[in-house]
Automatic annotation (TrEMBL):
Sequence ranges assigned to domain AMP-binding enzyme C-terminal in this UniProt record: 513-587
SUPFAM superfamilies reported in the protein's UniProt record: Acetyl-CoA synthetase-like (SSF56801)
GO biological process, any: lipid metabolic process
Keyword field contains ATP-binding: yes
Residue span(s) of domain Acetyl-coenzyme A synthetase N-terminal: 31-83
One Gene Ontology term of the molecular function aspect: acetoacetate-CoA ligase activity
NCBIfam families, sorted: ac_ac_CoA_syn (TIGR01217), PRK03584.1 (NF002937)
Organism of origin: Solirubrobacter pauli
Name of the protein this chain belongs to: Acetoacetyl-CoA synthetase
Pfam families named in the record: ACAS_N, AMP-binding, AMP-binding_C
Ranges of residues in domain AMP-dependent synthetase/ligase: 88-446
Keywords: ATP-binding, Ligase, Nucleotide-binding
Family: Belongs to the ATP-dependent AMP-binding enzyme family.
Length: 632
């Protein structure tokens, strides 16, 4: 059954959007034709992105090798991310608007950003940072962090950042791998109306990295300098930054992405898929520890202004970000599905009492957005809002399924596969599926795929992470359905899928059913193998304040799952917990909880420093002990 259409692009958008101009120049009539051409002719497509968005001279060869892993892009070409960001800028034009808790919004022009970056580059150079050296940042989401990143990129050095709310063990697990030359940090940060002192954490971090020179923002100022901002042009596959897997199990994978690959991919997605144009103001709520920070900073590659917000999205209430949207005349509001869900539960009314007339689009990522979440945006933000739900991830630092300004929005569905992203749904034998759920795969390389994992000298961890299931084809680890209309539905992680009686169900589908029960505000479900018996499928729920897990509530949950999902996916037990454990970027810890309940020692199952709420693991550890399977 085809879901309802919630939005169709107005003629004004169809005429002005960059994607439409790009498509018409190629003589193609539909987005589907354009997408097909982009994946069938990758050299022509990616070469056109290079040329259209001003990356300079290049050789004739675009893709010297299409092997995965090991694709070779633009051999012999030289680039610099920061140079492209500052290219042809009006020094008086607005680059950044920065806000946060209990502070006035600040406006940073391109001239001011260039001056900040120039001083940061001189300071890094004075500390011995050069091409290939690593700069680690333990910093909040503020303009000074952006300038430090651009300075790092200008030198051909390699950037890596963590949010100051990361615990010291989690930071050390990440930064110690890459052996930074310089660590830039703050001693305190503000969140949820409180100031947090990080001096003790910093002492632990710096002690673990004796080779890194430490620079404290606010104490060690960048030097005044007359040196011009210069740019070290580097090969296409030279490292730009290091991102990390969530770090919930074992040492985080240090994912290295290239200057050229990120430039090409972000120029494509921000211009053609987000339609970032002059006068637009782009925002995505994030911290410096999530890939969405890297993504929104790349908004500086466009003619738009980027918006930064430092602090809690819920302080003093969930109205804070909507107030920020109104006063900054935000045009694109990027957030997470969990934030939209929280607004729904709290009864937030974004459009009431504030002017959101500038807001054209809302983006959602991080986890699948429910159909109810889609409807809520159109009912409470505005019927003329372009809502684009996206899916991709840290691994490529982009969305390869998501927004297309020329296409309608169907309730609960992602609009289409992104240009240049050969996304398919595959069955276990590697056969493509349409209208059925399968593994999300990429059958052809994309430029922003990792060039390697740091320290993975023989490439074995890289191959194991993505290419063991289907040799030569990227398996992402998500369940996806490609519909006959070309839209997509993400059903959650394929490695956390609940398989009952041969019927596979993404956890997102179960959560959608459970969260429709009024008494429930959050949930976690796992499927735990039990030797000689059917698997045990406990459902853990967080209840609304004042509610109790009565027989009636349990019956309502079971009924909803039975009706919305399948009788096979009715939970074995329903257990109340105070909170669901999540990573610092908001992802539910399904697999670590499953491993704990299977007997894995908790310290091996999850790194507590990588969690937003470490104490939330304790009930699961206790439950494992009660069941006699505890490895702790």
């Amino acid at each position: 059954m085809t879901p309802p259409v919630l939005w169709t692009p107005p003629d004004s958008l169809l005429q002005r959007c960059e994607l439409g101009a790009y498509r018409r120049e190629r003589g193609l009539d539909t987005y589907e034709e354009l997408w097909r051409w982009s994946v069938d002719q990758p050299e022509a497509f990616w070469g056109s992105i290079w040329d259209r968005y001003g990356l300079g001279e290049r050789g004739e060869t675009v893709l010297a090798s299409a092997d995965m892993p090991g694709a070779q892009w633009f051999p012999g070409a030289l680039v610099n991310y920061a140079q492209r960001a500052f290219q042809d800028r009006d020094p008086d034009a607005l680059a950044i608007i920065a806000g946060g808790e209990d502070r006035e919004d600040a406006q940073i022009t391109w001239g001011e950003l260039e001056a900040m970056t120039r001083r940061a580059a001189a300071g890094l150079r004075a500390r011995g940072v050069g091409k290939g050296d690593r700069v680690a940042a333990y910093l909040p989401n503020i303009p000074e962090t952006v300038a430090a990143f651009l300075a790092t990129a200008s030198l051909g050095a390699v950037w890596s950042s963590c949010s100051p709310d990361f615990g010291p063990r989690s930071v050390i697990d990440r930064f110690a791998q890459i052996e930074p030359t310089v660590l830039i940090a703050v001693r305190r940060y503000r969140y949820n109306g409180r100031e947090f002192d990080r001096t003790e954490a910093l002492n632990e971090i710096t002690a673990a990295m004796p080779g890194a020179q430490t620079l404290i923002l606010g104490e060690d100022d960048w030097p005044a300098t007359d040196e011009p901002l210069t740019f070290e042009r580097v090969p296409f596959d030279h490292p730009l930054w290091v991102l990390y897997s969530s770090g919930t199990t074992g040492l985080p994978k240090a994912i290295v992405q290239s200057q050229g690959g990120i430039l090409l991919e972000h120029l494509k997605v921000l211009h053609l898929h987000l339609d970032a144009q002059r006068g637009d103001r782009l925002f995505w709520f994030t911290t410096t520890g999530w890939m969405m920070w890297n993504f929104i900073v790349s908004g500086l590659l466009t003619e738009a202004t980027i918006l930064l917000y430092d602090g809690s999205p819920g302080y003093p209430s969930l109205d804070a970000l909507w107030d920020f949207a109104a006063r900054t005349e935000m045009t694109t509001f990027g957030t997470s599905a969990s934030y939209i869900g929280a607004c729904m539960k709290a009864g937030t009314e974004p459009a009431r009492g504030r002017d959101l007339s500038a807001l054209k689009a809302v983006g959602s990522t991080g986890s699948p957005l429910s159909p109810e979440g889609f409807r809520w945006i159109y009912e409470h933000v505005g019927q003329d809002t372009w809502l684009f739900s996206t899916s991709g991830g840290t691994d490529l630092c982009t969305a390869f399924v998501g927004g297309v300004p020329e296409l309608p929005v169907y309730e609960g569905e992602l609009q289409a596969r992104s240009l240049g992203a050969a996304v398919e749904s595959w069955d276990p034998d590697g056969h493509p599926l349409v209208g059925e759920v399968g593994e999300l795969v990429l059958t052809k390389p994309m430029p922003s795929m990792p060039i390697y994992f740091w320290g993975d000298d023989d490439g074995s961890r890289y191959r194991e992470a993505y290419f063991d299931t289907y040799p030569g084809v990227w398996r992402h680890g998500d369940w996806i359905e490609i519909t006959e209309r070309g839209t997509a539905i993400i059903s959650g992680r394929s490695d956390a899928t609940i398989n009952r009686g041969g019927i596979r169900m993404g956890t997102a589908e179960i959560y959608r059913a459970v969260l429709a029960v009024e008494a429930v505000t959050d949930a976690l479900v796992v499927d735990v193998p039990v030797e000689g018996e059917d698997a045990w499928m406990p459902l853990f729920v967080v209840l609304r304040e004042g509610e109790a897990l009565t027989d009636d509530v349990v019956k309502a949950i079971r009924k909803r799952v039975r009706e919305d999902c399948s009788p096979r996916h009715v939970p074995s037990d329903v257990i109340a917990v105070k909170e669901v454990p999540r990573t610092l970027s908001g992802k539910v810890l399904e697999l670590p909880v499953k491993r704990i309940l299977m007997g894995t020692p908790p310290e091996q199952a999850a790194s507590r420093d990588s969690l937003a709420n470490p104490a939330a693991l304790d009930p699961f550890v206790a439950l494992a002990a009660e069941r006699g399977v505890s490895g702790g």
